[in-house]
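Q: Protein A?
A:
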Amino acid sequence: MPNLINLEQVSKSFGVAPLLDAVSTGVHEGERIGVVGLNGGGKTTLLEVLTGLEEPDSGRVSRVGGLRMAVVTQRGVLPPGSTVANVVLHPLGGEEHEWAGDSRIRNILSGIGLSTLGGDGLDTPVDNLSGGERRRVALAAALVQDLDLLVLDEPTNHLDVEGVQWLAEHLLARRSALVVVTHDRWFLDTVATRTWEVVGGKVESYVGGYGDWIFARAERDRQADAAEARRRNLARKELAWLRRGPPARTSKPRYRIEAAETLIADVPPPRNSVALASFARSRLGRVVVELEDTHLQSPDGRELVRDLTWRLAPGERVGLVGVNGSGKTTLLRALAGDIELAAGSRKQGKTVKIGWLRQELDDLPLGMRVLEAVQDVAERMMLGDKEISAGQLAERLGFTPARQRTPVADLSGGERRRLQLTRILMAEPNVLLLDEPTNDLDIDTLQQLEDLLDGWAGTMVVISHDRYLIERVCDSTWALFGDGKLTNLPGGIDEYLRRRAALAPSMTATAANTSATAPTDAAAHRAARKELAKLERQVAKLDDRERELHAALADAATQPDRLVALGTELKQVTADKAQAEERWLELAEDHE
């Protein structure tokens, strides 16, 4: 496969220590590369040098001529005064109405939650959007293009579980190469054919996704008899979790499975659930937090949850999932006693001490240094049956002794998130409410956090789009589907996604019809609704077939007879899709 971008002996630094030190690597056509590493270790710098946003201090970067490339950074910078439609459709050229009926674009907008953004959809001004919404708009503007290379920096940060799954499936269906910085381990394992680890100024390359990288790194440490025993043991424990997880996750070659089983043969279970539950009961008592006949509303008065009775038990570990806007954070605030209930009552046990991790980073003392900020909460704490100091806990969450002397105001976003977690754990809560705890955390810190939570006794409710975190630290999964109820999911995240997929056709039909004015004839109205829904399904199928034919044409480059047959079928599919889209537009316009 030809190289799209090539780096030769590239170095780059923004201080004394180089972020990239004589790095040589490249991106091949059709390759999907996941980039991992510690926060501040050079991942974003590597992306910026690859794409030309930053020039290297030394070395050479070469790109193939005519390279079609889009870059989505974490900055979320959009042209002021524009609408979502201007930003998303502008890269395509031509007039907006020319793209209005394109089912591929509609699918992208719907997949990352932009079709009903701000109530005005594509007409929403970008100046009115939140940071997360701006990131999703920038992502959509890249995805609608036909590219050779797509470069994404943390694209999953502002997507829910369903959005992450949709994005993974979309990227797998594309023919373009991909370079993505991500800390979402399920996403990395799903989309990556190669993993780059940026460490110590170098780029280490591994074949495969997260599971393969963890195995290779642990094996490398074992063979080298590395001095970092704690980090090696943590990687081995993560391997044990991967092997004990759902069977689909272990679909590796047999020799890799046998090697992993040898490596983790003496690793204990991630946590002793019975012992932790017993310890939690002794600290908490029988009553933790109880919501009785509760009604919850959004700030604009929309009903989120009704008639909810929920009693959290001592030692219960709950994962909470749902689409953005379904009420997850509001429910967490209700459990914390931070909002007034629209109806019903809340009861809290006398011995309950709540630790609440918010998504915002507005509760940190910017005038202190890191260690002072942790010691300001407590000097020492009990973790399970062991006592550890403030400095030891800070080090477990990624703050080296030298870094602990850094002013809080000088920390990056990921480091502030780690400090926020450290301060909450230092207060020794017996109820943890965690709202997207994985945002801005690198994979090593995530593993340290999971290791801490494995040995933490108490009640826990976690909102996260990180499937690995939910499956690792939680014993049950609950979901908000937007129907006003809290639903238990015995099958976990997989069951949630199956249920959401089953709801999708009815939701699509409803969305298509809410923009139409009801005809005077009820029978005609019903017929129009059925045909619109049928056309949506037909266009989606034709889209899939069109992608399959393009892939088949690429594979049949040396087979003239097959090329002719595939080309004829592709023309027919394209014509059928155009006809279906035209009919869809006619129906939509007739019922506006």
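Q: Protein B?
A:
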Amino acid sequence: MQELSRENRRTRTAWLRSVAGAARRHVMLAVVAGLLSGFVLVLQADQLSRIIAAVVVEGATLGTVEDALWVLLLALVLRAVLAFLRDWAGQQASIRVRSGLRAELLAKLERLGPAWCQGQRAGDVSTLLLEQVEALDGFVARYLPQMALAVGLPLIIIAFVLPQNWAVALIFLFSAPLIPLFMALVGMKAADANRRNFQALANLGAYFLDVVQGLSTLRLFQRSRGEAQRIHRVSEEFRLRTMQVLRLAFLSSAVLEFFASVSIAVTAVYLGFSFLGELDFGYWDTPVTLQQGLFLLLLAPEFYLPLRELGTHYHARQEAVGAADRLIDLLNEVERAPLGGTASLPDAQAGVALALRQVSLTWPGRHDALLDGLDLSVAAGEHVAIMGPSGTGKSTLMNLLLGFQAPDSGEVTANGVPVAQLDPQCWLGAVAWVSQQTTLFPGTLRDNLMLAAPDASADALWQACRDAHADTFIAALPQGLDTRIEEGGAGLSGGQIQRIALARAFLKDAPVLLLDEPTANLDRDSERLVVAALGVLSRGRTVVTLTHRHDTAQGADRVLRLEQGRLVPLEEVQ
């Protein structure tokens, strides 16, 4: 199990490095700026030690060391500029990687299709795209450059310390490996804690969004107080997990500070006893002078600083490794959405004929097929209604027709061309889809309607609203079509939202109309208006209606029933 865990960590780390490869130039710029800052640091320590030694030992005045003071000031300014450049380059690298990864994840979600997304918890996916991608910030912006600097900067300092005193150089070299060793030992625990913390955050986000979306139902059944207590309990669990991660981070920092402080103290003790004449080794030609001692003592903290900073940023690495699990899982998800071809739909203006030939589909983890050798032919201009109780596969059949999902075997065709070979924009442009759960976006009613036809005129908008029996209630709104609505159509009734969906379908004027329980959850008056509008909308189009209600199936040319993965005429069932 431990070997498997190590292999998983190596896999995640390798993936993180490959993702960071997109910002290699900015990472290298940050490294170069940090290394140049190391050379300037040595110059700064040299000038400062010379100034102090000249004033203390030789009694020099400020005027005598004026040139050295100007060099020291220049070194300070250069270090500030290089530090800014290093931070800027690291942030640019992080922005590039995070934006690129989010674009890749969104493209993956698009390829997986709405059928896959419907089976996921919205809060979980949102946490993945926001929080877990954001966790890569410290890894790219600070940890990757610091890895190179943790090696380069100490070597630069050793190169200047060794000609001055070999004993101090040996102290540095023997104590330096202790810091990354203990950093790694503590960091392995931090990675596991971060992974559990991200999973807890994803669960909390998904659960909280579910509660918010169902708040009205919870109030109706007087369960809001109980859910509030449960959210408090889950939040408290997440707080405790976060504290565990922080405890490990502070423990790592304490260990690093301890070994760095001990090493600096050993250096200071050696230099002190050398001045007192108690130690007579370590120098090359002459015993340690005040200037040399100050120079070495000023560089001692700076020698360990890159290693300590690496330890601080190592926590960011473990955070990124913990976040990589779900990101890799999503990117490796098997794509079942068939749309992605380049073919155009032939003779679409004359009508579209649909066909499913020996279509079979089995959900992962299930042994029995949801659809088993299903055959269906819908002629151009024909209206076919398919009935069946919930769970028989009606929504899956709709996803197949829309091209949101691919069958395990068989094919779905439009005018004889497999849907999998059609250009997505071409096929979806030929289809109007009205489901039982209409999505309205924050904005005006006009904006929501023009999603179906961005270039539609005001007259066309109102005509579509009249055809959908939506004009009366829209005219009664404060700003009519320019009335702003909230997400999901808050403030509008279910019947009004469904009539807006029908108005969009009228406005699109597509040759294929797919209806998925269009009258579900409507009162009788709203259902009567929707059914009347559907009767007008269906004329001259190829229509497939999925429903479990006989009233909605009225007016269809054929009524079929979906049973045990196959379609049979309703008369045979009766």
